[in-house]
Amino acid sequence: MADALSAIPAAVLRNLSDKLYEKRKNAALEVEGIVKQLTAAGDHDKITAVINLLTHEYTYSPQANHRKGGLIGLAAATVGLSAEAAQHLEQILPPVINSFSDQDSRVRYYACEALYNIAKVVRGEFIFHFNKIFDALCKLSADSDPNVQSAAHLLDRLVKDIVTESDQFSIEEFIPLLRERMNVLNPYVRQFLVGWITVLDSVPDIDMLGFLPDFLDGLFNMLSDSSHEIRQQADSALSEFLQEIKNSPSVDYGRMAEILVQRAASPDEFTRWTAITWINEFVKLGGDQLVPYYADILGAILPCIADKEEKIRVVARETNEELRAIKADPAEGFDVGAILDIAKRQLSNEHEATRIESLHWISTLLNRHRQEVLSFLNDIFDTLLKSLSDPSDQVVLLVLEVHAAIAKDQLNFHQLVVFLVHKFRTDHALLERRGALIIRRLCVLLDAERVYRELSKILEGEADLDFASTMVQALNLILLTSSELSDLRDLLKQSLIKAPGQDLFLSLYASWSHSSMAIISLCLLAQAYQHASSVIQSLTEEDINVRFLVQLDKLIHLLETPIFAYLRLQLLEPGRYIWLLKSLYGLLMLLPQQSAAFKILRTRLKTVPSYSFNKDQVNPTSSSSSSEEEDSNNIKNPDSSHNNGIDFTSSLQQFQQKQQQHRLHSKTQARTRTRNISISSKEVKEAEKGEEMKGPELARLPPASRPSRKGPGQLHL
User: Does residue 529 sit in helix, strand or coil?
Assistant: First the structure.
């Protein structure tokens, strides 16, 4: 300190802290001259003492004018040092940078001015202290004083010039600081940062692209800034980087893909669109590098397919198709399980388009990597079953295609049908709304006969009798009405003359026995008219309920459709098809006379010609065993009770046993309901009695107004 005081006159030191700028400026010029002399003499110890004096007695002084003078003095000392300034920068820069945080805006302004003059002197040596200076400039860019901001901008431009000229700038040391600052929300700081990123990227010797993953997320974050100018600057910088990526032979796609996936889910439209555009380019350019990230990329694409913005939907669909067209192999790191997990999660997406594409992905994976997909079947099967309740018919149809692809082998086919029946059992609404659609589509995809045989096998032993009856009625209605099942109906029509038809008839019979109307329909379809008549005759009072009559009404209307045209034509030969006529009359007798179905069937039977009746055939005893034996020899006569190996007597017993189970079940349910009603009534009475006991004592009627104990029906007046 003594060396400094001896080197600098007291008057100079006094003027350096004067409140007038001119005096401080003149004092600084004196300091510059003194430092020049000391530099020429090589007396660096005194120079160090002068710098310490200016630092501790002035820049760190509580007096604002002292701090201003100290900053001017340090800048003057640097000018005086000239080429020798570099070795004293470690002393000079800290107090100047520290002054950027001064509470006095004028001090901050002079700090900018001082650092500007210092930078002009040292130039390239400035680079070694770049991070400290950059950090200080970053804070100054958001200064509240416009004069300080203006000074900071001038300083910033000078520093940028120095960096672009230097070949000693260390991007590796700078990137951690940049990454830390990229999360700042202040708009001025954001502009400052984007400006520096753009400048550094323009320098050929600085590889900003290699460090792009470190600050890419920050740039994307700026796309949603409230300032249009910042959004524009960030977008411009991103566009430039994307162009460089297209032209670069080596890019770290993986780290950036993770960032893009997150940004594709941004609530900001512009951010989503930019992210999905980048992902689109990455899918085209990334190749093998992106294989481990396919699942994450797919997770970003699928929701965007249903984005509210058309341009995002277009790019997302294009990207989805490109990604699906890439035939990656699990041996190369392609994770089938991860892709399936993404598709599974997106099946619960609120948007139909996303759910549809998820199913397309599962279908694609099944075609390419069937064994790998089947190994994850337990993880996705339940979700696929739930998707059968989807409100979109298109989604349901695609789900069925996936199920059909899974069910190519017998084990998975059986599992599918078992789970499907379980789904219908637990979700009656699904059976009512979508049952026909699901069954019809499966019949197309998996062969109708195979599907019906498997369903029948499962329903035959169904413990829930009410559900079994409902399910069989639904299957029967689908069988009788669906165009997809025309071949199955044709096969059943040959039940009495061909073995395949007989085998199918018998495989359906056991489960169809859960519903008397389904059995009658099956017999009419198979032209087993005598057995149909026997079934009708076996019906009891308990069987003919509202549910039965509703089903019968449907059957009568179906008899008038083209599907049963063959049956109506057979009525032209009532003598030959006497059991058909008897069956139809039997149904007529079961219908209420005022019902529409009764009138329809009676009108049809009135048209039956009477000229071809054969008295012997009309004989009511023609159902005897001798007649059955005669008819069994003539397979052309469908009125036989024992045709082509079908034991109709045994079948009738099987039907009756099944119906007896249903009757017992109905009685049990009725008793349970009655008991529950009785218990509820008893509880109500006890509750009322308890309330009476708790309440005030009721006033007793006078004797004259109470009923007398006379005989029943007599009142005491």
Answer: helix
